[in-house]
Amino acid sequence: MTESQSQAKKTQNSRVIFTIIALGLYILIISTTEISYFLLTAVFIFLYGCYLASWKWKNILPIACVSAGTTTIIYLIFGKLLKVFFP
Amino acid sequence: MDYFQSLSLGLQNAIQPIILLVIFSGVTLGIIIGAIPGLSATMAIALTIPMLFSMEAINGIALLISIWVGGVTGGLISATLLKIPGTPSSIVTTFDGYPMAQNGEPGKALGYGIFASVMGGGFSYIILFTMAPAIANLALKLSYFEFFSIVMCAIVMIADSTEGSLIKALISGFLGMLIATIGIAPVDAAFRFTFGWSQLNAGIPLTSMLIGLFAVSQILTEVQYSQDKKLIPPSLALKDMIPKWKEILESKFNILRSSAIGTVIGIVPGAGAVTASIIAYNQAKNSSRHPEKFGKGSKEGIIAAETANNAMTGGAMIPTLTLGIPGCPVAALLLSGLIIKDLQPGPALFASNPELVYCLFWVFFISNFAMFFLMLIFMKPFIMMLKIPKHILFPIILAMCVMGAYATNNRMIDVWVIFSFGILGFFLEKGGFPLGPLVLGLILGPIAEVQIRQGLTASAGTFMPLVTRPVSLFFLILAFFVLCWPFYQEWRKKRRSGHPH
To answer: Is residue A9 part of a domain?
Structure first.
């Protein structure tokens, strides 16, 4: 295996590990704290999205808009209509 | 209520405005998700299941069916334009769809694919309409022991028809059955593997397990390998995408053959759309006048692959609705959707809810035509969806997984289940253990248990009816042969090559 191949494999594995840790942490914080689910979701989408986009500046604004928009939609559909009460 | 009365009642239900709206929305969502590489119809259906709790049964199941029909076909867009199959079932479409698009005919390639999809789907739904009620009538005469033998035969067939190692597929299937035993036993109410934890009394929640196995594990796989590929949208005109009558007539035997292959493969539990399209493609190549054109943009290749993978959907629904035995993982998800709505698929469903069953048949038909028109009219916007980057999609999907799991029961344990099963599914797939048999084991395990235990109660504890009843014996022998066949082939191959040991 060449050095670039082993570096690529390392990057791939680190993305999986980061995803598992980020998701686990997100669920842990939802289940153990009183912080709003919707706020946490917005933060999760933003931070995880930025990580996947390698923190490139040109991607940060779209990700911020998407995280805010998605959380608003989730709030409107599930928070109001279905009366699902998240912690 | 006779057959034609049920059919017309089903049609009346299926053409209600709300169901038509659900179908068009579902097909659109299915096409978009199917088109985006890395997302699949299975994932979309797993994520949609929690919504069923707040929907009427017919609307909810119609949504799942329409997503499936849209998703299977949507995969051809990225397969043709990017050489990346949007869904696993469109792998074979890349062989000829992409070369044809590269030869300057992307509209034609997509048009053949869409047309073949609608023909394959239509054929299999006609078979579903005609065969399913007859099979359900026969199934009503089966006893507990016969059902148990059929389920065991299905589990073995699922493992056998899954690609890769048979042993690993069997282990995966039995792991699913083992997980399904957690909770209170269905017959004698004994506590099994609950370790005194009351949250496990009802077993591990099926919906959350499915979301974990099909959505979270897929995201983990995708973040590891996938990279955004730059797409240059081709210029497409509607007239380019509509095939000429002459071209359709030239392919009539190919369409019929591939439809039949797809439908039959769909009926066999576990075989799936990929197997159907590979077999249909090879058959089309073998019987073609121009086999040399295959792999270089052959019209026949695209038609064979797309006809077969859509025909599989109707075929897979036949054992699902008539026997309660899913023909593929997506059918297993549909089955769990029916169970969520307190509808137990099987022969009794045809007697107790004929208007629902026949309505579902029509939903397949209408979804098929909705897919045809939506694909032709909105192809450009669907292509634009391929440009959505992964760093936008994946965080949203993960957040939806968490929300969907929590919304099913308002319990945090469901969220932890998607997390754990997501990781389990990821590592199982990495180790070569297919997820299809695992899910089918999860669903078929409890059915097999209930059947055999009720049978034993009825027979005063003797297993003899398993071998004394002809239908039960037939399926046990069939299961034995299906199980032994790959080992026999392996042994024969070694013997021929002169290395028996």
So the answer is: yes
> Among residues B293, B405, B355, which one has the least CA distance to residue B11?
B355
* Contact indicator for B165, B150 with CB cutoff of 8 Å: no
Question: Of B333, B62, B392, B26, which Cα lies nearest the Cα of B208?
Answer: B333
Chain A residues whose C-beta is within 8 A of a chain B C-beta are 12-13, 15-16, 19-20, 23-24, 26-27, 30-31, 41, 44-46, 48-50, 52-53, 59, 62-63, 66-67, 70, 74, 78, 82, 84-87
- Virtual torsion, Cα B461, B464, B465, B471, nearest 10 deg: 150
DSSP B274: H
Q: Is residue A86 part of a domain?
A: no
**E runs forming strands in B78-134:** none
Nearest by CB to residue B395, choosing from A24, A30, A45, is: A45
* Residue A66 in tokens: 């998407």
Instruction: Give the pair of three-digit tokens for residue A18.
Output: 């980061």
Chain B nearest-CA residue for A17: B220
CA distances from B34 to B29, B66, B356, B370, B427 (A): 8, 12, 27, 15, 24
pLDDT in tens, A32-87: 887 888 888 899 999 999 998 888 888 889 999 999 998 888 777 666 544 444 44
- Residue A46 lies inside a defined structural domain of this protein: yes
Q: Is residue A87 part of a domain?
A: no
- Asked if A84 and B407 come within 8 Å (Cβ–Cβ), the reply is yes
Residue of A nearest to B426 (CA): A16
Lowest mean pLDDT among A72-86, B79-93, B285-299: A72-86
Nearest Cα to Cα of residue B225 among A51, A15, A49: A15
Q: Domain count for chain A, please give it.
A: 1
Max CA separation in chain A (angstroms): 55
**Measured between alpha carbons, how far is residue B300 from residues B74, B265, B307 in Å?**
19, 20, 10
d(CA B215, CA B101): 31
Q: Are B108 and B240 in contact (CB under 8 A)?
A: yes
Q: Nearest-CA residue of chain A relative to B228?
A: A53
